[in-house]
Structure prediction request, 819 residues.
Amino acid sequence: MSTSNNYIGEPLSFFQLFAEKDLRIEVPIIQRDYAQGRSRESEVRNNFLEALFNYLDEDKPGRELDFVYGAISETGNGQSFIPLDGQQRLTTLFLLHWYLSLVGGRTDDLKQIMVDQSNRSKFSYETRSSTSEFCTCILTKSLLYNGYDSKRSVSGLIKNEGWYFKVWDFDPSISAMLEMLDAIEEKFHQHDHFYERLTSLKCPIITFQFLNLKHFGLTDDLYIKMNSRGKPLNPFENFKAKLEQKIESLSTGSDFNFPLQLSGEFIERSPSRYFSDRIDTKWLNHFWEVGGKNAKLVDAQIMNFIRVILSNSYAVSSMNYSGENARVLFKTQDAKYGQHDKDNLSYFSYESLGALFKKSLEKIMFSFEQLLLISKIEPSHIPDPYHYNHFLVFNDVISHNLTAGNRILFHAFISYLILHEGNLEGLKDWMRVIFNLVENTRLEDTNDVTTALKTVEEMLAVSNYILQTLSGHDIQIGFFYSRQVEEEKIKACLIVKSVRWSTAIYLTEKHNVLKSQIGFLLEFSEILSYYNKNRNCDWSDTDDEQYFTKFGEYAEKTIATLDYLKNRKDSEYLWERAVLTKGDYLLPSSSYRYHFLNTTSLTDRDNSWKRLLRLNRDTDGLAAWDVKRKYVMQVFDDARFNKADVKNSCVAIVKDQVQDWRSFFIADPELIAYCERGFIRRENNLKIHLLETTKLTYHYELRTIDLYLNSIEGQDLLPLTNTKYEKEYGFDGHSHIHLGEFAHQKKGYQLKIYFDEVNHYSLQLRELYALPDPTPYDESIIALCKKHNLNPNDWRGFSFVSKSKSDIISKLKLVIGDL
Prediction:
């Protein structure tokens, strides 16, 4: 056959290669195995079959599948086409032709075209002889096919034939072909008429541009190098190509914002060409330097960067928004990924998730461009690293290891640069405010993050003069914690008021516990009440001096206390006990549980001093919370409190006497230590239990454990033995003091002390092993109980009750003395 220039870029169908050009197709050894049929390639396979089906269903000639190129060579069997690119598509088309001939009863027709005189398939794989043999067998061997059966696949029929060798199960190309045939069967089994359309020579439906590279003077050596040992385009290259096509398809219309003017350079190229040029030059070079000049790492980093931009853009858009899609894009733990690989989303994943639209594609290009300009930002405009360290956050972005907070901060940063390029004077203030709001707002799930991103997007309009906007109350900020928003407005008033105020606020905010939550200081220094009344801080110079002094004093005392708590090595709980002298500060949890704030991090979300000091919303229904916070202020206001010596200040304060349940904990820090996770259960002032865990599992009753530790443990109680405290489990258990056992008239007896909210302390005497039908007590024991006013009780024993701890101890000593 002549290899004329007619074959350069000639549109041909798969069937025409054999029927008209009389070519063979031989996939060379250097090519990889057939992969489109593999299980993990389901997305590529399904999308390709969907496209083929639609083309055949529409019945419009000339639907192209891009280029198929390689070289035509003379072989012993005639002329063979050796594909360099297109192997996967050609193999799928081969299988589609065979299956449609099978369901349409046209296998003999196909065999006449596709099988040579040696009864060998003209479509073969040189990769493995078994693959070529399989291709020959399905064309030449008979197969009993009675139509589609959901319980019996076409691959199962093939593997059940005598000509199918079991060893072929280990040929990856054959396995992939069988899986592809099952997918084809499921898609095409009711469309046997497609065979005529697929094999039409006059009006072929599906074609490709057939290119013979030999006409370009390529040597076999260069051919092998171009093939790169059969490796296909990597996912990143494929993704770029598809994304470029998407940009081109969406670039019509004036609202796409192109041509662009970036960095003073007027871009006259089309959007898709602009993207293509930049991502392979300047943008790529930026990531090349960041990624340590590692090609594989760079590809992954760029993909991750694009993912963050697309996911954030999707979150702030209202176009077909789905919370589940957002979870997949964000890669949250609760996402139902389904067909989407959570670590490496493909182009088709983004498309099906609805993340590719005009604004999101714009945002990709603008964001890439801004990365090139970050190093040129003037030092005076760079955000304080405490609020936003771009290089640390960017490292999380390109590794797609973002916290919810950093995702929002990155969006705020890159969006500001895009919106205000060349006018970055407000960048530092903007990032500080966003950090403060994010840091002090709970982000529970993807919906919260999405709403936060939308709120930041709404705030962007005033981002370059955010302090002026906040101080003038010209903005309503939703989602973020309302009291933190109020705090930011007050602080904005003070910051624009004077340098000394801004300096004091900035320094206090950056304390590693407070983390910008200083509303309580505004409350303690009475700035909050003034602001709530006047909606400004426009007081006189004299008042300004008083407010500033108060704020500074409370700030210094707070920081000194927090630093003491962070570094203290004692277990005396002096601070907790000092605040208890002023009132019940314990934070409520649930089911009557309260927390001392002694065992968790100082910044723990639920149980910490930071949370106690947080201003609460009116809707929280926790008016008492404001009272609890004021107990801290009362300690600071105590004349004995010295910020230079917090520990000894507390030592002096805990000497104060109180008359309720708090007195036990103030007097004995060991009781607080018994609450291993910091919790007590307090149903009322008399029914209080010390919890070992966060729930009512094993627990101690407050007054009996106090009595045991301070009056019984270590005491000589002979003839009693085995004295101990018995903690109980659950709601039905009664923790108590087991005073020990004694023997009398060959019977064993025991003494215990209980406490309950009705009888208070109860000293009980009963048999050691009380039986359902006990024998009568010995007369001498009965006489002993009568002598000391121990009366019969419901536990088949005797007890003495009293509200006085000293009475119980005195009675115990008298009873022991008569044993």
User: Anything to note?
Assistant: Residues 1-8, 216-233, 254-264 have pLDDT under 50 and may be disordered.
